[in-house]
Amino acid sequence: MLLRHLRYLLAVVEQGGFTRAAEALHLSQPTLSQQVRQLEERLGFDLLDRSGRSVRATDEGEVYLQHVRRAFAELAAAEQAVADVRGLGRGLLRLGITPTFTSYLVGPLMEAFGARHPGIRTMLQVMTQDGMETALEADRLDLGIAFGQVRSAEIEVTPLFDERLRLVVAEAHALDEREMPATRLSTAVAFALLSEDFATRRHIDRYFSEQEIRPTVLFEGNSVDAIIEVVRRGRLATILPEAVAREQPGLRAIALSPAIAPRAVGLLQHRGAYRSAAVRAFIATARDVLAENAAMPSPSR
User: Fold this and answer.
1) Can you tell me the distance from the alpha carbon of 80 to that of 94, in angstroms, rounded to the nearest whole number?
2) What is the DSSP string of 164-186?
3) Alpha helices in the chain (DSSP H)
4) Residue (of 145, 90, 96, 98) closest to 123 by Cα position
5) How many CB atoms lie within 10 A of CB 151?
6) DSSP 3-state assignment of 290?
7) Which domain holds residue 39?
8) Among 52, 104, 147, 290, which has the highest number of CB atoms less than 10 A from its own CB?
9) SS3 state at 10
10) Are residues 212 and 224 in the same domain?
11) For 101-144, how does the pLDDT look when each residue is reduced to its tens digit (9 = 90+)?
């Protein structure tokens, strides 16, 4: 049995059939089918159910594939471990991040990490926290930056800092207070807010509900950058992390009374997964950037 037989089997299951798998592998369909059949003959049982419109794993095949996937994950970890022995002159970091952090955190982190370890390539994906946890569990990501309240026991969290949300307005906005009673939010401002599929928006809505606020929302969007631009250029206010107002020009933050409850931010990893040298280096860089940069939130201790 060769590794290619196992790769071919995985491709057929992931693509849902031999035709698409053959195209992805740049093989002819008869060759691919023959290779998978050889594997089944060697094992003595059918791995694939070919009776339907799409090909899927049999019950025996699904059990077998669970071990195959783990074996490939171990092989990848072994290759990464060998690369680590050679130092940090090369490597790959697959990093996930939730959208609000793109406006103030990812820039300083990437700048510092790239300066320290120029040979490491970073693949960054912006995604929801649920998607991030799923990707970490499937070993499609090495590390994620998100909120500390995770849904899965398979995800472990290394605390980074507490994120504080503030009312954010343009520098020229008519509001000139440094602190505003929450009760005025129903009448004193109109809002541009992130859409309801964002965890930040759900946190804001809980605050509105607790304070019995009926906000006037005139703009909603699924882009943090779009919200920032609308607020910076107009009369609308938003609620975003305090660090956004410090990092982005033309904005200022107003504290609310009572304050919105802070949220713990952390580095997320698949529990028990191999922690590569690139991952360890990024964690160290993140802590140093938060400790050294006055514009960043204070790191957790």
Assistant:
1) 13
2) -EEEEEETT-S---SEEEGGGHH
3) 3-15, 18-25, 29-43, 59-85, 106-116, 129-137, 185-188, 199-210, 224-233, 242-247, 277-292
4) 96
5) 10
6) helix
7) 3-82
8) 104
9) helix
10) yes
11) 988 899 999 999 999 998 888 999 998 888 999 999 988 999 99
Which string of DSSP letters, residue by residue, matches 189-227? -EEEEE-TTSHHHHHHHHHHHHTT---EEEEEES-HHHH
Residues 169 and 33 occupy one common structural domain? no
Cα-to-chain-centroid distance, residue 297: 19
Instruction: Using alpha carbons, list the distances in angstroms from residue 229 to 104, 136, 220, 235.
Output: 14, 32, 12, 11
- Do 247 and 175 lie in one domain? The reply is yes
Q: Is residue 301 part of a domain?
A: no
Q: Which two tokens stand for residue 299?
A: 């790191």
What parts of the chain have a pLDDT lower than 70? 1, 82-90, 294-296, 298, 300-301
Per-residue pLDDT, 87: 60
The rounded distance, in Å, linking the Cα atoms of 218 and 213 is 15
**Residue at 190: amino acid letter:** A
| Domain membership flag for residue 297 | no
* Residue 247, domain member (yes or no): yes
Q: What is the CATH number of the domain that holds 215?
A: 3.40.190.290
Indicate the pTM of the whole model: 0.66
Q: Return the structure tokens found at 88.
A: 């940090």
